[in-house]
């Protein structure tokens, strides 16, 4: 029989898939002997069964009853009994953390009877009724589906009537009134009563938490974080402990290190006389943990010791939720904590230095995405604008955008390509779409552990929270800042998530310390040193080489400084633009061979100079030069433009310019409905006489020039858009003919490998044949994605990709992250069949995917020799290539 319920004593962190992260870690802490209130976990398997059928799985409720009885026996009290009732919390907890996205119901077991018993045993009527109103509110909204805003309205009315600044200023009779009001609200809204049976409360709360797996915000969060939709959540049922029992009680959140900077030492927020939910929602401002040390030194010391135990045990930054009930510390949750990119690098390096991790494990803890974030520019602190406010620097980075005051507005403006900053008094999980759309989040309340901060950090959004200087009036769509400055919706502000400063206007940006290091080797601070260590280690273990896509000497030089081991794609089309366009035009409209040869001859020295510069910047390493790819009409003037000019001339009785007429004829001749599938790539080389010869001659002469200058040029010639081996054979013959010719003319033999791009499905499927003529393959995954899916790469992303992402057709754009199943399969086939035909075949990738972390893992797996990406992605690719290599090593640490 399937088992659905597990006691804390039965589990451990290795069971996170079944028990959810929260449940598994509670079990782990119980095993470590930390003070965890007892409880049990209903598994994700039960949730999946419930979501699949809409019914509680058979046997689950009997198991719950059995575990509840055991809990009651252990504690010595019954759930919801009249005197001194046992109360439990019912919390969600999926395999991967989804902060605030699913539901929780606290204080299960309270009813009209047991609330009196709780009042008696606690000696506090206020506490008992405060707990009851929390239950009725949470249960009413979560289980019975009443709009939570109605409960909040009643609370606000009461606070206003009592002139109470917060809920602490309400007394027991106020709370009795509130409970009654909430109950009649439920009755009015649902036609049903708040249930008095504790067993029914428990059962319904568990099912409601299951259902919240499919809440809109949870679905959106999963899509963003790429968490599979079919995992389901576990539910933890745990004896309640109370942080709201008076001044010697409270709740808090702690990190074993600072999650923003990685600095060691206990870090967090504490809220006296409050339950945990109050801390994360930011309804009242928490105090730093240092304050707890003053208020309750014993609990603080215990917390510090437990934090250390956890960090050593998990060998990572942990975050902790805890409650102090009348001077007794209870641990309510722990997990490996989310952190900023800065903190990830700093912590990984420190844990390696402390000997807690090996260098491979340290590398596994950082990511290419994190490194990319560290490379983003920062604000120029010498040129800051007027300071509007300073808050808690909760998630670093520099962001500029128009202030907006609700999630919907943020989404709408961002969809129109406007950069926005979402400004809220405090955020709720329902603000998630706006947080995704915004460049930054700014809140007036809450600390580093508030919901806004946690979610923003997780997504790499800039976040400043708890900016006390601002008063947000969301209804009037404005906020008032320091010195009474009023910021209306749409006003541009700058948010510095590294310092907590908020400025009026757009502050200019400068290079980050990490970028300066990559450019010059200067190790400005400990984070930069940590990045350097991680990159060094990645370089020492990676198998994939990293090259760059660059087509100017400047880009080539930068790529080299960033660690590129060559150029994997030098596109030659930009060399046909600017002033040279006239020469290209002349080549295209040439009537005679002699005219065309003249135009080509004029282009030759210019191309030679381009190649010489690049080969010099990349001396000693390979430079893969691709022959011209785009259709020639891209170099001609616009068709409509020309037609209008000619028509205008004719309309005024003048003779149109002959050159214009000639050009229009050429444009019309070459017009294509689908130029991406038309006369481009190798096809162009085969039908425009002299084009391949001119480019190859320029390359060969550049090689000779560099060789004579004492250099070590390694040019490789790459033929684009080949679909059949015959195309490559013809192109190759021409290439070899010209290379030989230049060798004989100059007396310096020129040897360049000749290879092809694999960027059409037919090329991938006939790779064995094509390899007969190719020294190397380079996968053009941009075109290969375009042609495999039948997606026009220039159009589809704007046209319907956001709808496809929303509908879950794919989790990421296939132009960003390689589609392993389809395009990846073609890559795999081509590598295998290409290598089978030619064992020394060199293979690489030069599409945009070459700089994408997830895709790099795949390219490592299929055994490519190198990835090539834009110069700015080179460090990211080095790091990810190192991380990919970890998979081949035995780095298991028994976890
Ligand atoms: C490709 O198609 O992946 C590629 C690198 O070539 P381009 O983007 O220039 O078409
Ligand atoms: Mg291409």
Automatic annotation (TrEMBL):
Its cofactor is Mg(2+). Residues 60-284, 294-351 form the Pyruvate phosphate dikinase AMP/ATP-binding domain. Residues 417-500 form the PEP-utilising enzyme mobile domain. The keyword ATP-binding applies. Keywords: ATP-binding, Kinase, Magnesium, Metal-binding, Nucleotide-binding, Pyruvate, Transferase. It catalyses: pyruvate + phosphate + ATP = phosphoenolpyruvate + AMP + diphosphate + H(+). PROSITE patterns: PEP_ENZYMES_PHOS_SITE. Transmembrane segments: none annotated. The keyword Metal-binding applies. Residues 536-882 form the PEP-utilising enzyme C-terminal domain. One of its GO terms (molecular function) is pyruvate, phosphate dikinase activity. Its EC number is 2.7.9.1. PANTHER family: PHOSPHOENOLPYRUVATE DIKINASE-RELATED, PYRUVATE, PHOSPHATE DIKINASE 1, CHLOROPLASTIC. Belongs to the PEP-utilizing enzyme family. This is Pyruvate, phosphate dikinase. The lineage of its organism: Bacteria, Bacillati, Actinomycetota, Actinomycetes, Kitasatosporales. The gene is ppdK.
